[in-house]
Write a structure and sequence with these properties.
2 copies of one chain form a homodimer. Chain A has an 8-stranded mixed β-sheet, sandwiched between helices. With 295 residues, chain A is an alpha/beta fold. Chain A starts with a strand and ends with a helix. The interface between A and B is large, with 86 and 86 residues.
């Protein structure tokens, strides 16, 4: 599929990379970058992330076939509702928010009934974030070989004889194909499943890394090496964004933290006992899981 | 200084890299790799980490001017005592063990009085380890721009009129110069200070990363991305080696773990309260410390 017009709302690391990937692969004739600050938009345009820019959301989406929100999770629901008022009837809206249940639930409750037309929102989450932010870190290959989770709502997964329902299911397929066309592997799961899994694989590591960085005495920073640097790298992420993400997945994250604390306590107990067999068993269990993933 | 003969005991990632760096910089005429298994030694030689190899420790050190132990912490004290019996009177012995207090204390008590000659042991620790092991991962530039901690014993830092004492202090300077000549920045501190600092900057991260990897359900591994990978990377390290390291720094590590747990509990409390101000403050404190170090 080659799109006539794709609109990207929020042209930072993710949004900028979507634009670069679309251009490199010639998948869109026009790519409109939409944002709040002219400066970032101008930078994104000069970096060739987008072909056009505007700070006016209504104006930016009015002829878009596909609209991708790459904005903080807190803003997404309101922005989708606003976009739906102004975009073409056939447009598909998707997002890149790190948590999905609150967004998809809110939009299937509050958006769908108010929609004047066939506009569809399908939740998504490319697992391609980084502690780096801004279009200057965008890369055309950011999504190649990465996982993108697409999280249809319940009504988007059940086909019936209704014509609308067919369109809904096609919109899910379209969003999946969009990410595949940028080189990603798409995994479909429910928003609730996504949030439970990502609590463990993304949001928990962020708290663990941040708690570790925060526990390091500044006087010892000279003596940090690769191990500390790797294991705390994500703590350099934007603190406001991560606060939103953590709070939007509070329940799952607290559960993941409880599991982590219990794992940590096993190491502490073995160390207190000075038990080499028990301690090496724990390290070996961790290594087995880590080795299963690769570098 | 160009050495006639350097002996490297244990030719893995660190030992192999010492050899490659010495060869690249033409700092030694002969580099003898000493190890337990002929296979690893042959690999190290074919990779040009060393010029000669032997499985016989006594034979390998008998004409060495500088002997560097790159073996697991548990073996170092016994090996140094054995080496001291066979090496030349002017030889300097140093090591790369990740903990220093137990080794330096044991050797200043048990080794020095039994030494037949002027052989000196000076403790050291290049902060250049990795989850990777074996000479196949060795790199000639591994120590460039890295920190190496040199940890003289108390008697090695106090000069007096005694001729022996001057030699002792010169041996510390020689070990520092050796690492500088490989491109590293040398930091001097007492073994106790080293172990307290490294508990926080190296051994704690290893437990934190291992507890995190171990707490991850295997069914979720497909949904891990850069954050999880970075923050658990060191958990792929050798479990036996890390058991030895952790137990040899038990007291400092338990203290560092207590500090970490208290940092973690602050995040959990803020998340439970759902307090965005408190949570973003904690993330910001972590980010400030992480940003001070760089990538």
């Amino acid at each position: 599929v080659i799109y006539n017009t794709v609109a990207i709302v929020g042209v930072g690391l993710i949004g900028g990379s979507v634009g670069l990937a679309l251009r490199k692969r010639r998948l869109a004739k026009k790519i409109i970058g939409i944002g709040r600050t002219s400066e970032t938009l101008a930078k994104a345009k000069s970096l060739k992330c987008v072909t056009d820019i505007t700070t006016d959301l209504a104006e930016g989406v009015k002829s878009a076939d596909l609209i991708i929100l790459c904005t903080p999770v807190e803003l997404i629901v309101d922005q989708v509702c606003e976009i739906a008022k102004h975009c073409p009837a056939h447009a598909i809206i998707t997002d890149c928010g790190s948590t999905k249940n609150a967004i998809v639930t809110a939009l299937s409750k509050s958006l769908l009934p108010t929609l004047k037309n066939n506009v569809q929102f399908v939740g998504g989450h490319p697992l391609a974030g980084s502690e780096k932010t801004g279009p200057e870190h965008a890369r055309a290959d950011l999504f190649e070989g990465r996982i993108v989770v697409v999280t249809p709502s319940k009504s988007q997964t059940i086909a019936n004889d209704d014509k609308n329902s067919q369109e809904v299911i096609e919109s899910v397929r379209d969003v999946a194909e969009f990410w595949s066309s940028l080189g990603a592997s798409v995994v479909m799961m429910s928003p609730a499943e996504h949030d439970a899994a990502l609590a463990s694989t993304s949001h928990l590591p962020h708290i663990v890394a941040s708690a570790l960085a925060r526990a390091t005495d500044k006087s010892n920073l000279l003596l940090t090496a690769g191990g500390w640097r790797d294991s705390t790298r994500i703590a350099a992420g934007d603190s406001q964004l991560w606060t939103q993400i953590a709070l939007s997945n509070q329940k799952n994250l607290l559960k993941a933290l409880a599991g982590y604390e219990s794992s940590l306590k096993k190491f502490i107990a073995a160390l207190k006992k000075g038990d080499p067999k028990q301690l090496s068993q724990l390290f070996a269990e961790a290594k087995e899981i880590r080795d299963a993933v690769g570098s």
